[in-house]
Amino acid sequence: TRAGDDWVPGTTKDRILDLLGAPAPGDVVLFHDAIRQPFDPSALDRSATVEAIDEFIPAVRQMDLDLVALS
Questions:
Q1: Are 35 and 42 a contacting pair, CB within 8 Å?
Q2: In whole angstroms, what is the distance from residue 61 CA to residue 55 CA?
Q3: What is the pLDDT of residues 17-50, one digit of tens each?
Q4: The predicted structure's pLDDT at residue 51
Q5: Among the listed residues 5, 34, 7, the one whose alpha carbon sits nearest the alpha carbon of residue 21
C-alpha cells in the first residue's frame, strides 16, 4: 500500500507525489477526498490531493498500468 499523506495539513502536491513514488503492478494507492474532524482546519483543503491526482493518473497510464476502484 502506498500513501502520500495527503491528509497532513499544509502538504503539497510535490510532497504527496514524492511519498507515493513510482507505482508498481498490484500496488494499492491511498488518496483522501475528505477528513472527519481534522486536527487542523487547513486539513480540509484538498487542493494538493487534486493536483497530485492530476499528475499521478497520466503517469500511471503511461506506465501501462490499470487503475481500479476498491470498495
A1: no
A2: 10
A3: 999 999 999 999 988 877 777 677 777 788 999 9
A4: 96
A5: 5
